[in-house]
Amino acid sequence: MQYTSYYELIRDYNEDNVISYLGPTVYPSHFHQRSEFTYVLEGTCHAVINNTTYSAEAHDLLFAPDYYPHSYATTLDAKRINIYLLKDYVQFLNQKTFPCLLSDKTYNREKLLPLLSEFQRIYSARGVMPDSTRSLLLQGYSDVLFGTLMERYGNELVPRNKQINTLVEILAYIEDHSAEKLTLESLSNKFGYNKFYFSKFFNSSIGDSLTGYINNARIRNFTKRFQQDTHQNVLNLAVDVGFDSLPSFYRAFHRAYHCTPKEYFEKIKN
Questions:
Q1: Which pLDDT does position 255 carry in this prediction?
Q2: Element at 15 (helix H, strand E)
């Protein structure tokens, strides 16, 4: 396996990441406000979606419903297409969702892959095609993609996980309050759970400890703020985002990115 070290929580739709071609990677647990499809072109992609493991090979499709925590780990020969739907289709599914592994390879290759290729062509036409035309076409192809998925997989819909809403509330709260002193006791009390149940529920859902996840949220906040002003004092900013000491900050940073802050921002700059 080849490991690419980054840990990101994507909570808002951004047109800059609607569709992309990706190579081999390991991507830790995260979630999105939009449904995400991963079309495997080559190699094997192992995914953990809502605490269940799936293995997808060429022309399989992985589906991560909105707000479902998911992670990826691929073989070195992997090539994939990632796409986020541009509309919330939950109302059409009546609280159901697609299975997380869509494995009709012939249908996927013949029906879905051409749509993804055309979607990519339109998406890449920024600056060439008028923005209004491009936006209409992207939304239209998003609808066609959803309809094409329903045509083949609509009879395989499964109930949405009822615990997802609770998990999303917890993760959103951590993201918004990561600079504060957060503990197992305070969070379990906040959400009305026994602390032992809360810890087990969190670890099994996310695949990381509560402390590790909180520190990753702080590191994301640090990198975002430091990029806005690279002349800031590292210690002051580390304390400001929630760390109680410089050693704990450096340990958390290395855990998230496998390098020092200096090395990380040099890579970003280059």
A1: 86
A2: none
In angstroms, how far is CA 15 from the centroid of its own chain? 15
**Residue among 118, 108, 113 at smallest CA distance from 141:** 118
Instruction: Give the pLDDT of residue 156.
Output: 95
User: Tell me, which fold does domain 15-159 have in CATH?
Assistant: Jelly Rolls (2.60.120)
Please state the rounded mean pLDDT for residues 217-232: 88
Report d(CA 82, CA 93) in Å as an integer: 22
What count of other Cβ atoms lies within 10 Å of the Cβ of residue 45?
A: 26
Per domain, the residue ranges of the chain are: 15-159, 164-269
Give Cα 178 to chain centroid, integer Å: 19
User: At 88, is the secondary structure helix, strand, or coil?
Assistant: coil
Task: Give 58-79 pLDDT, tens digit per residue.
Answer: 999 999 988 787 888 999 999 9
Question: Nearest to residue 46, comparing CAs of 207, 173, 213, 215?
Answer: 207
- Residue 20 near residue 79, CB atoms below 8 Å: no
Tell me the three state secondary structure of residue 138.
Answer: helix
Superfamily for the 164-269 domain: Homeodomain-like (1.10.10.60)
User: 15-159 and 164-269 share one CATH topology?
Assistant: no
How far is the C-alpha of 152 from the C-alpha of 130, rounded, in Å? Answer: 33
Tokens of 223: 């990198």
DSSP class per residue in 20-50: EEE-S-EEEEE--SS-EEEEEEES-EEEEET
What residues have CB less than 8 Å from 228, skipping those under 6 apart? none
